[in-house]
């Protein structure tokens, strides 16, 4: 492997370790995303190597020696909460052989599932993860006896997938497994809402596997094929349909900013907005789908398309009253997205305030590795971190 390639890989490692995208790092270096891609691929031999490496080391806040000496460090493995690990492990034991005795009555299963869903939207992820393995085991028995049981099993697997996607790449693999099982249970039930909701998790899994184009194509195809049935399914059906278009919009941003990506993402956002207008009121099935959620996804899409300034402006058009109508999980995620955009536009104090607000709303959301990386990035970007930022960092387990 040539020297430029080795150096490029080291830069890629430390950029990812600092929680920076290629677009983020490019902005900090005063360059484009394409420039970063070439640099990490070892294709920028014409650049002044020493000055370039020193600048990169300064941006990454590491000694220059870290970029010019072997070996490249192994990626750090973020630790997962024990309950999340137990949930991931439980998936490999399910479906278990049906025990003897009467299956859990469906009303009791619905009650337990509702508890887990409420815990999820309240950002009590540990409590959700703790209860899901037993719920899944009992739902498997119910699914063998009725289509309603299969719907409950699908929804439990959907929730497991969403929760596992919250954490590191380590938990995304079992999350993909949970999404696939959710879809299988939904198809066995024949319920179009369950099928559409499961398909959304499958599309999310494709995004986490970095198969962004496949995610957009799959979510769009599912939305189009299920549209008639979902439109006849009232608010739950419309919420499911709208969320499929929103995940398709997110998938369209995976290859970076380009005319095609912008066009596709805007088209899917527009389709979701039409569904939200058709739906009228609040969403169903804990989706928070509606006009406000479409606008929050617009913020996310703009940020993913490397337009942080436009993302900040779009976020400011969402009123506090509209945000207050959403669940804690959705509001906290939006605050984290806002913090990322503010950090990239050098509004660091405002970014810190957004993260502190997210922590107040949902402490477990801010303790996730991806969000801790945002806090760590702020520490790196701010020459003299405020007491508020240092305190937040310490609560996240970071050395401030």
TrEMBL record:
Record CDD domains: HTH_XRE
Example GO molecular function: DNA binding
PROSITE patterns: HTH_CROC1 (PS50943)
SUPFAM superfamilies: lambda repressor-like DNA-binding domains
Boundaries of every HTH cro/C1-type domain copy: 11-67
Entry-linked InterPro entries: Cro/C1-type_HTH, Lambda_DNA-bd_dom_sf
Highest taxon in the source lineage: Bacteria
Name of the protein in question: XRE family transcriptional regulator
Biological source species: Streptomyces radicis
């Amino acid at each position: 492997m040539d020297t430029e390639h080795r150096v490029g890989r080291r830069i890629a490692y430390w950029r990812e370790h600092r929680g920076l995208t290629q677009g983020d790092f490019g902005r900090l270096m005063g360059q484009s995303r394409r420039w970063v891609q070439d640099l990490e691929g070892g294709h920028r031999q014409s650049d002044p190597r020493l000055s370039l490496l020193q600048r990169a080391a300064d941006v990454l806040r590491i000694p220059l020696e870290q970029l010019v000496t072997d070996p490249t460090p192994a990626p750090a493995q973020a630790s997962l909460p024990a309950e999340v690990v137990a949930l991931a492990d439980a998936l490999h034991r399910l479906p278990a052989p049906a025990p003897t005795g009467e299956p859990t009555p469906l009303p009791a299963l619905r009650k337990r599932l509702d508890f887990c869903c409420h815990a999820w939207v309240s950002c009590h992820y540990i409590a959700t993860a703790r209860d899901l393995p037993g719920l899944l085991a009992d739902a498997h028995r119910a699914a063998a006896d009725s289509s309603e049981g299969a719907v409950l099993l699908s929804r439990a697997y959907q929730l497991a997938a969403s929760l596992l996607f919250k954490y590191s790449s380590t938990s995304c693999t079992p999350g993909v497994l949970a999404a696939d099982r959710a879809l299988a249970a939904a198809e066995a039930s024949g319920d179009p809402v369950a099928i559409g909701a499961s398909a959304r998790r499958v599309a999310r899994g494709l995004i986490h596997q970095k198969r962004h184009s496949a995610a957009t194509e799959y979510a769009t195809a599912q939305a189009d094929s299920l549209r008639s049935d979902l439109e006849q399914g009232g608010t739950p059906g419309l919420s499911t349909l709208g969320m499929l278009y929103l995940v398709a919009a997110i998938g369209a941003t995976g290859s970076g900013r380009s005319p095609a990506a912008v066009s596709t993402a805007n088209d899917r956002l527009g389709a979701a907005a039409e569904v939200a207008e058709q739906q009228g009121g609040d969403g169903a099935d804990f989706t928070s789908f509606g006009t406000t959620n479409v606008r929050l996804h617009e913020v996310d899409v703009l940020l993913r398309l490397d337009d942080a300034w436009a993302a900040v402006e779009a976020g400011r058009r969402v009123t506090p009253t509209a945000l207050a109508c959403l669940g804690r999980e959705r509001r906290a995620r939006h605050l984290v997205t806002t913090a990322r955009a503010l950090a990239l536009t050098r509004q660091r104090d405002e970014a810190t305030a957004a993260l502190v607000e997210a922590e107040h709303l949902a402490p477990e959301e801010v303790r996730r590795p991806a969000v801790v990386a945002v806090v760590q990035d702020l520490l790196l970007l701010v020459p003299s971190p405020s007491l508020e930022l240092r305190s937040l960092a310490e609560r996240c387990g970071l050395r401030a």
